[in-house]
Design brief:
The complex is a heterodimer.
Chain A (H helix, E strand, L loop, with lengths): L10 H6 L5 E5 L6 H14 L3 E6 L5 H5 L10 E2 L9 E6 L2 H12 L2 H9 L1 H9 L3 H16 L4 E5 L8 H14 L1 H7 L13 H13 L1 H18 L2 H11 L5 E7 L3 H16 L4 E9 L12 H14 L3 H30 L5 E5 L8 H12 L6
Parallel strand pairs in A: 1-5, 1-6, 2-4, 2-5, 6-7, 7-8
Antiparallel strand pairs in A: 3-4
Helix pairs in contact in A: 2-16, 4-5, 4-7, 7-8, 7-12, 8-12, 9-11, 13-15, 14-15
Chain B lengths: L19 E6 L5 H12 L5 E6 L5 H6 L9 E6 L3 E7 L2 H13 L2 H10 L1 H8 L3 H15 L21 E5 L3 H8 L1 H6 L6 H14 L3 E7 L3 H16 L4 E9 L6 H9 L4 H10 L5 H30 L5 E5 L7 H14 L4
Parallel strand pairs in B: 1-5, 1-6, 2-4, 2-5, 6-7, 7-8
Antiparallel strand pairs in B: 3-4
Helix pairs in contact in B: 1-14, 3-5, 3-6, 5-6, 6-9, 7-10, 10-13, 11-13, 12-13
Classes of the chains: A alpha/beta, B alpha/beta.
Chain lengths: ~375, ~350
């Protein structure tokens, strides 16, 4: 099967370009985002960049592959072999701590204490969905501003949808700035919303009945303390969102050759185009390219046809097994090519690179370096 | 724990006890497929089974080759012998509006809440509310008895259950503990009141003898690691563990001696070439050298898989295997998988 024509994602050109300041790795769960982000960071560092990798993944996989015992909310140096051209740091996002730091930075000590102790704030900063994405964006903004690194690689949070990384911060910001929270936190007597329609009287009593008066009190004091500190959650979210649209940012969409992951990748590519966000390209992990040489010319049917008489006679078990394996591999590759071609045909011009499946998982820097090399080397096109 | 832990049970024997099957696993392990196969297997002796999807991905519809499913329990598979599998693509927003209407008779308030952004808040932002709405749908189906629909309290308490089993295609392992621990999830928002009561009712079912949490893994390191972590978390919450379902298992094609040789130095090139020559390939020596790499990769993979399998066995849960099906999974393939589960005995 001839692969569809496509341009290769040139990873070295991407990480070597001093104009590349942020690389965001996104995609469905389980496709190797974290590994890809770490491998890109390492390759960039070894080629001379001052790179930092932010991971948001609670499974601490990046920590494992970087040989670090634990990652906390500050970037830690990753020891590179002597003579490395650049440097690498890695950090794991602690969303609560990031949120607390934002509060402490913007509020006077007494106010900050009030906010941090507020029960509603505590729920917001630890378990609201979207806080992780919001804080990942916040941290990204901080690191970018610090100027300590010239390349930031972001591994996006594990969420239901890859799009959540883009949407959740704004959704949360919209809620915090929105009508609902003003409405709930308005003193009962003002009746600010009475004019909006009769349904709202019912709403007031419903919400009161469902969530209880205590929560409304917490919310009221949270809103008043927070407002005076820094209004504009939404604006804050939009500021970092804008950062993602600047030319220095590159999105790398990560997938594996299965239907779900490729569909998710396709949604994401579409969305980036709609929002005019810079897509560097697609990384397809765990593919099964065929080896070159004479084996490439042996099709799956031919291999099976050759294996069958050997199996019947039982004379050459190794050869028949090798032929069966090869046939399976050819069929796998044909399926992968179909999936890839379907994606490329609906998104013309997307650059892509494949990383062949490894027999074993990546555990260490050497393994990450291997992934980086695979990312940068010629595409396995067969 | 249940007596089913210590070996296979006659079909249906354990079902009388375990009626809510929560299926989780690392992303990419084929959770949805396994959940559907389990539902199909549980229906194989005439049972009525509900498969609930909660991630909004319409994975079941894709699997069955049907258009996106609406928010209703729809019969999707009928099994020879009278069994049926119904599917519900649960949706938090629809569940919320339904809940408000059922308990408060407030469809109008639902609309007003929607305009205010409260529905969006409850279903996408607020911690736990979305989850309690979704788990609430599944636990309500578990409690429902035949007779009048929906409100368990309306039916006589000795009426048979509406569903013999409910299978939930749950969130991935990384989020499962939080998803199921609905009580503590909503505690930050509601310490008292109807939400809290609802969460308590849901938790009662999840904690009960009727519920099992099953893990889907592959014979790869990361899915196995997440299975270990997830089992520890679920156990820590005091919930009942079920099976470890190892998906996409490939048969080894080489015998032990060839496997060991291929993994260590590479396969015996002469033997390989001799076989290829007998199969009348031109230049068998060159072809053997080319295929040797594929054989070695296979042997290394088998070795890794065995290590992972023995790690999974150490978890002490019943280990069931499902084969890798080339060409993906469709209705026919689902039958094959369900049969494989039934053969190994769905052990709870």
């Amino acid at each position: 099967m001839t692969p569809a024509a496509h341009e290769r994602l040139d990873v070295d050109a991407l990480v070597d370009d001093p104009g590349t300041r942020i690389i965001v790795c996104c995609g469905a769960g389980g496709v190797g985002k974290t590994t890809t982000a770490a491998a890109l960071g390492l390759r960039a560092a070894e080629r001379g960049r001052q790179a930092v990798v932010i991971t948001v993944d609670p499974a601490r996989r990046l920590a494992q592959s970087l040989g670090l015992e634990s990652l906390d909310n500050t970037p830690r140096p990753v020891p590179l072999p002597e003579g490395a051209a650049g440097s690498m740091h890695a950090m794991m996002l602690d969303m609560k701590r990031t949120f607390d730091e934002v509060v402490e930075q913007h509020a006077a000590p007494e106010r900050a204490r009030q906010i941090l102790a507020n029960p509603f704030y505590q729920t917001l900063s630890t378990s609201f969905s979207g806080t992780q994405e919001y804080m990942a964006m916040e941290k990204l903004g901080q690191l970018r501003q610090s100027g300590d690194w010239d390349l930031i690689v972001v591994d996006t949070p594990p969420s239901r949808s890859a799009l959540d990384f883009l949407d959740a911060p704004k959704r949360l910001g919209r809620f915090l700035d929105g009508r609902l929270i003003r409405f709930l936190s308005a003193p009962a007597s003002t009746g600010a919303f009475r004019l909006l329609g009769a349904g709202f009287n019912l709403v007031t009593s419903t919400i009161g009945r469902i969530v209880g008066a205590q929560l409304l009190d917490d919310l009221r004091s949270f809103v008043s303390a927070f407002d005076t500190v820094f209004g504009g959650f939404q604006e804050r979210a939009e500021r970092t969102y804008r950062l993602l649209r600047t030319p220095g940012t590159a999105f790398v969409v990560v997938a594996v050759p299965d239907t779900d992951a490729m569909r998710e990748a396709s949604y994401f590519v579409e969305r980036l185009a709609t929002d005019a966000m810079p897509l560097a390209g697609l990384v397809v992990n765990r593919t099964h390219p065929l080896p070159g040489g004479p084996a490439a010319d042996v099709g799956s049917r031919e291999a099976v046809a050759a294996a069958e008489p050997l199996e019947r006679s039982g004379s050459h078990p190794l050869a028949s097994a090798a032929l069966r394996l090869h046939a399976e591999r050819v069929r796998t590759r044909e399926r992968e090519n179909r999936l890839r071609d379907a994606l490329l045909s609906s998104h013309g011009g997307v650059r892509m690179v494949e990383v062949a499946a490894l027999p074993e998982d990546v555990h260490d820097l050497a393994g990450l370096r291997g992934i980086g090399e695979a990312l940068a080397s010629a595409p396995p096109d067969r | 724990m249940s007596e089913g832990e210590h070996g296979p049970q006659p079909p249906g024997g354990a079902r009388a006890k375990a009626r809510l099957h929560i299926v989780t696993g690392k992303g990419g392990t084929g959770k949805t497929t396994v959940a559907a196969a389990l539902a199909r297997a549980l229906a194989s002796d005439g049972g009525r089974v509900l498969l609930v999807e909660v991630e909004g991905r319409q994975g079941v519809a894709t699997l069955l080759g049907s258009p996106p499913l609406p928010y209703e329990e729809r019969e999707m598979l009928s099994v020879p012998g009278g069994g049926t599998v119904c599917v519900l693509a649960a949706d938090a927003e629809a569940a919320l509006l339904e809940y408000l209407e059922m308990f408060y008779g407030m469809r109008r308030a639902g609309q007003a809440l929607n305009r205010l952004g409260a529905v969006d808040f409850a279903t996408t932002i607020a911690p736990g509310l979305r989850d309690v709405l979704l788990t609430g749908k599944a636990t309500e189906a578990v409690r429902r008895r035949r007779g009048r629909r929906r409100r368990p309290s309306d039916a006589p308490s000795d009426a048979p259950f509406h569903y013999d089993a409910v299978v939930m295609d749950a969130p991935p392992t990384g989020r499962i503990a939080r998803f199921l621990n609905v009580n503590s999830e909503v505690a930050g928002l509601a310490r008292v009141g109807p939400i809290r009561n609802h969460a308590d009712r849901v938790m009662e079912v999840i904690r009960s003898e009727q519920t099992r949490v099953h893990f889907v893994s592959l014979l790869e390191e990361m899915p196995a690691q997440e299975t270990r972590d997830g089992i520890a978390e679920i156990h820590g919450l005091g919930l009942r563990l079920g099976m470890v379902l190892v998906n996409m298992v490939r048969p080894p094609l080489l015998d032990e001696a060839d496997l060991a040789a291929a993994a260590d130095g590479g396969p015996d090139l002469d033997a390989l070439a001799a076989g290829l020559k007998e199969a009348r390939f031109e230049a068998p020596g060159e072809l053997a050298a080319a295929l040797a790499g594929e054989v070695r990769a296979h042997a290394l993979r088998v070795r890794l898989e065995r290590r992972v399998r023995s790690d999974l066995e150490e978890l002490g849960r019943p280990l069931l295997e499902l084969p890798l099906l080339e060409g993906g999974v469709d209705r026919a393939a689902l039958e094959v998988l369900a049969r494989r589960l039934a053969e190994q005995g769905v052990r709870l």
